[in-house]
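ARCHIVE CARD
Drawer: 12
Card no.: 0347
Subject: one protein chain, sequence and derived structure
Cross-reference: see card 0346
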Amino acid sequence: NIFVHYHEYFSEEDYTKQSFFERLGRKYELPLLNQAQWISHTNEDRIKLFKNDFPNLDISKLNVIPNYPTSKWQTKTSQLESNRITIKKPIRMLHIGSLSFEGMYIEEVLTRFGNDKDFSIDFYSRTTNQTLIKRIEGYKNVQFKGSIEYNEIINLKTHYDVGLVLYNGNSLNFIYNAPNKIFEYLALDIDVWCSDKLLTSHNYVINQSYPKMLLVNFEDLKSFSISKAISRKSIEYKSSPYICESVYSKLLKQINENINS
């Protein structure tokens, strides 16, 4: 039995820019897909692109499996409830994951918030690029925290107010992307400020409850209303609906059916 899941999307043009072995692997991809019982991407937009790349595939095999965190991240306590009510200055911002000045709005965020006493930014990343790290640490209110294991992210709950998603949409892979960090930040009960260049992420806007998921034009932060973004006026708390148990059940059912058939 063959089950295939794509965490990223690469177009035919993208593959022409890849290494020899990646291009070679692409040649063997279609035969495997034809034999597969299950093929999934992380969102509907990528499924549509994938269909165009492989128009002869049996579409009944195609599924959407988003990258959501476990419901265990949603543990509630009275302390957590009290911390959700308001966001106070300094606003504590968080970024987890890869870092790139070319593919992300890091420069714009650092310029706007890095030396402003009303904000702090912590970056968690596995990068070892010392030039990049030194640039980040050159700002007064910014810290580079190094890497963090996935299962440890839950321990950041209550320590931050806003999670940043900074991709600038420089490829189809990112334009048609709702990064897993959106859902992880929401599970931490913190607001999300996500680049408006990620078109698929527009489907996940939350502004009538909190934690919020807001789209931000990081190219024009002067026009971004911080006070409006952090306001809790006339809205209530709602825990994130994006948990992996709700989407993996379909996959597990298919696996069980194949095993027992």
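Annotation on reverse: The mean pLDDT is 92. Residues 70 and 245 are 7 Å apart (CA to CA).
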